[in-house]
Design a protein that fits this description.
This protein is 44% helix and 14% strand. By secondary structure, it is α/β, with parallel strands linked by helices. It has 3 domains: 121 residues, 3-Layer(aba) Sandwich (Rossmann fold); 138 residues, Nitrogenase molybdenum iron protein domain (Rossmann fold, 3-Layer(aba) Sandwich), CATH 3.40.50.1980; 114 residues, Nitrogenase molybdenum iron protein domain (Rossmann fold). It binds iron/sulfur cluster.
Length: 460
């Protein structure tokens, strides 16, 4: 096939800043995807499931065709220190007959079966595209089940056409608020709250990352009341109103919840990131300043000294092998993209393209101030745009999620999974080393030289 110059759809041009001399100053973002653009974004239901699935003792029923249920623990390495029920994907398996006559009866049957077999205490029922199209009243089915069994059966309003992945995040946050209200108790007044108590929002405990952060916080005298939602339990989430501060890592999915909790329970929040040395240290300092005791600064210094002693030699080794390389980033939210640009800079790597699925205007503003003039910045990209800019700017590696992996490999570019399937932590001090090692091994793998030599003459 002949190689053709890839064009950008006219409607997409306002969502891309191509670098030097580009007149697009403020990116169009936080909007529905353009029809025909083949967005890399996940659907509403997936957005909700990402957030709620790590609640390890809840039952997750997907009300839809069986295919939707394939989005489960197995494509997300969120770990549990206790219950494992979240690793199951229950589905009503809607079929043609249900689409014609309605699926409410089937959903009632599924809830009955789960209560009977597992003595469930909390069940989430996810709406999917089909449930939305046929108009099943999931809310009514859940209310009836709650009355019948005296347990929490909470509908997740995540039917496909309600919006995009961000809408799914909001649907999940609404569910989390409902869960918090379930205890029926008033939150503790401020004077009774433990001084160093925080909720940790937006860490889904991929490869045990929430445990690493918990360890750091514990060492400076800060206690996590509720992890929302990595390795969390329903009861733990119900206690979240008793914390003094919310620390928000994945701002894309959790800012909405943090704002609701501030309004309803008077809990302030700060945004943090534990990706990369700079952001990890900065985040810990800000948490210590906000809720740490009188000796928190001293404890922090000890922690930094201990951790950096262990990693500095290893990082120096990887820096020496990576200097001058070029990276492309395409991830879910803005906070991760910002941290990754800093991490690459620390490794001597220039970011030549950076984009997100659900970034906000302030994220793109921050990115614009961080990257070089000729770096491409883009929101809600499609594969063709990613391909074009990676080729044009000569990226040596793409950092993304599971949907970006085949694209990188087809282009003969190294890839780093910073999302779904990874099995090693990338956060904190040890994560910074893991990240540098993975980037080094991927970029400097002999396979790329072999591929380029042996694919000469091939066309795309
Ligand atoms: S909810 Fe809709 S878009 Fe999402 S997996 Fe199911 S059918 Fe696909």
């Amino acid at each position: 096939m002949k190689v053709t110059q890839m064009e950008i759809l006219e409607e997409r041009k306002k969502s891309i800043r191509c670098g030097k001399g580009d007149c697009v100053q403020t990116l169009k973002c936080d909007n529905d995807s353009i029809a025909g653009s083949v967005s890399q974004r996940a659907c509403v239901y997936c957005g909700a499931r990402v957030v709620l699935n790590p609640i390890t003792d809840a039952f997750h029923i997907v009300h839809g065709p069986i295919g939707c249920a394939s989005y489960t623990w197995d494509i997300r390495g969120s770990l549990s220190s206790g219950p494992e029920i979240y690793r199951n994907s229950f589905s009503t398996d809607l079929e043609e007959k249900d689409v014609i006559f309605g699926g409410e009866k089937k959903l009632t049957g599924a809830i009955d079966e789960i209560v009977r077999k597992y003595s469930a205490k909390v069940i989430f029922v996810y709406a999917t595209c089909i449930a939305g199209v046929i108009g099943d009243d999931i809310g009514a089915v859940c209310r009836n089940a709650e009355k019948k069994y005296g347990i929490r059966v909470i509908p997740v309003q995540s039917s496909g056409f309600a919006g995009n992945k961000s809408t799914g995040y909001k649907a999940a946050c609404d569910v989390l608020m409902k869960l918090m209200e379930s205890s029926g108790q008033l939150p503790k007044p401020d004077r009774e709250k433990s001084p160093g108590s925080v909720n940790y929002l937006g860490d889904f405990n991929l490869a045990g990352e929430a445990w690493i952060v918990s360890r750091y916080l514990k060492s400076i005298g800060v206690e996590i009341v509720s992890k929302i939602t990595g390795d969390s339990r329903c009861e733990e989430i119900m206690k979240a109103p008793d914390a003094r501060l919310n620390i928000v890592q994945c701002a894309g999915s959790m800012s909405y919840l943090a704002k609701m909790m501030e309004e309803k329970y008077g809990i302030p929040y700060i945004k943090v990131s534990f990706f990369g040395l700079e952001d990890t240290k900065l985040s810990l300092i800000r948490i210590a300043q906000a809720v740490g005791g009188h000796d928190a600064a001293e404890k922090l210094l000890k922690l930094f000294e201990k951790e950096e002693k262990y990693i500095s030699g290893k990082l120096a080794y990887h820096r020496s092998r990576l200097k001058g390389k070029k990276a492309a980033i395409y991830v879910g939210g803005g906070f991760k993209a910002i941290s990754l640009v800093k991490q690459f800079a620390d490794l001597g790597i220039k970011t030549v393209m950076v984009g997100t699925q659900t970034g906000k205007a302030e994220d793109y503003e921050t990115l614009r101030n961080m990257v070089e003039e000729d770096t491409v910045i883009l929101d809600d990209a499609n594969p063709s745009e990613l391909e074009k800019f990676m080729k044009e700017r000569g990226a040596d590696i793409l950092v993304g999620g599971v949907k970006e992996r085949p694209l990188a490999y087809k282009l003969g570019v190294a890839f780093c999974d910073h999302n779904h399937e990874r099995k090693h932590p990338l956060c904190g001090f040890e994560g910074a080393v893991n990240f540098a090692q993975e980037i080094d091994m991927s970029i400097n793998s002999p396979v790329w030289a072999w591929l380029s030599k042996n694919s000469k003459g091939a066309t795309t």
